[in-house]
Design a protein that fits this description.
With about 375 residues, the protein is of the alpha/beta class. It is about 35% helix and about 20% strand. About 40% of the residues are buried. It is built from 7 helices and 16 strands.
Length: about 375
């Protein structure tokens, strides 16, 4: 073999080895790219699934967790709402008339929200005389869905608590009804929501705090015995802290039973005073809304107090329990500022540092109004 031929053979073998190496590298690269793309697809699918499940979980928790209820949208710092209680009587005893007056007031007064109130607050005793016994009870239609039909109330969310008459049935059924009605916001026995930089609502379940109910044969005593009132008081303080973190201007508490009342049938309730008056005053709550007595009342202890070195002006007490049947049993009371005997509700407007509330009767006539400015 000549030298030239030998060189040619060696060159051919070298080029052949380089080509084989090139093909091997190319195939490896293609296999790597295929694996890389497959892994990338798995990663993308996993991330989509994670964020989708997270979003659904947030929705679920926000609607049914006792520490949070979905807040209505407030496009500016002006808010309109109605407080009504002791109403569920199948449209009788002025309930339907009150419902229509509520709708009319929202349409004509909620001018910056297209004639719609932002929400309705119920102070309890939602269904007479014995609450409801399951989530499919006809009272949901006969005393709620089929009554509050005025255009001024359409799609307006209701935020609720149970009253003592609701505790005669299955109070948890009313909580469960939140899954069936978009208007019915009742995530747990006690709950709250916050509109940052404006207002916080804290809803408390007061029936378990009254010891007589725990032995009353008309009540759901088995379920009442399971309620931990001390846990609820701790929860209350935690919610106030969340409101302070959100820089709310107003702290409003809602429950069924009042602390003070000029109504002769019930009057002042010592267990409510001992559990809540100092607590709410210390935590800087501005107003406590309640029902139970079938009338409208405004009460206030005019003595300012210092708590933890901070001046706390008097806690405002407003009773709104005239959603249907009423009682003419108001007597003299040292804290009473105003009253309304007939059926009706309270209309509220908040404009940042100013809160105005009006007593309105079932004919839509204003009987009293008061304005409170932030501390």
């Amino acid at each position: 073999m000549t030298d030239t031929t030998l060189v040619r053979c060696l060159t051919f073998l070298r080029l052949s080895d380089e080509y084989t190496a090139y093909k091997t590298a190319k195939n490896s690269s293609e296999r790597f790219s295929t694996i890389h793309i497959a892994l990338l697809r798995v990663l993308v699918i996993g991330l989509v699934a994670f964020f989708t499940l997270s979003f659904l979980l947030v929705l679920l928790v926000s609607r049914f967790n006792q520490n949070y209820a979905p807040a209505p949208y407030i496009k500016d710092a002006t808010m309109y709402f109605i407080v009504v209680g002791d109403w569920g009587r199948n449209g009788t005893m002025n309930q339907l008339e009150v419902a229509n007056a509520m709708g009319s007031w929202c349409e004509t007064r909620a001018i910056t929200n297209n004639g719609k109130c932002h929400l309705i607050v119920s102070t309890g005793d939602n269904f007479y005389d014995n609450g409801v016994h399951d989530v499919h009870a006809k009272q949901f239609n006969d005393s709620f869905e089929g009554i509050y039909t005025h255009s001024g109330l359409s799609n307006t969310p209701w935020y609720l608590v149970n009253g003592n008459h609701d505790w005669r049935g299955d109070p948890h059924a009313q909580i469960e009804y939140s899954k069936y009605s978009k208007r019915w916001i009742f995530p747990d026995y006690y709950h709250s929501f916050i509109i940052p930089n404006l207002v916080q609502f804290i809803f408390v379940d007061t029936t378990p705090f009254l010891s007589d109910y725990r032995t009353n044969p008309k009540m759901n005593t088995k379920l009442l015995e399971q309620q931990n009132t001390e846990k609820q008081l701790i929860w209350f303080k935690e919610q106030v802290k969340k409101g302070e973190d959100a820089k709310v201007l107003w702290k409003l508490a809602v429950g069924h039973h009042p602390m003070y009342s000029a109504a002769g049938k019930h009057g002042d309730i010592p267990e409510m005073i001992s559990n809540f008056e100092k607590l709410m005053s210390e935590e800087g709550v501005h107003m406590y809304w309640s029902g139970h007595d079938h009338n409208l009342q405004h009460l206030r202890n005019d003595t300012a107090r210092f708590f933890n070195g901070k001046l706390r002006l008097p806690l405002e007490h407003v009773i709104s329990g005239a959603g249907s049947e009423t009682r003419d049993d108001i007597e003299d009371h040292p804290l009473l500022k105003a009253k309304q005997i007939g059926s009706g509700f309270v209309f509220v407007k908040i404009e940042r540092e100013v809160l105005t509330f009006s007593f309105v009767d079932y004919n839509g006539q204003e009987t009293f109004t008061s304005t409170i400015k932030i501390w």
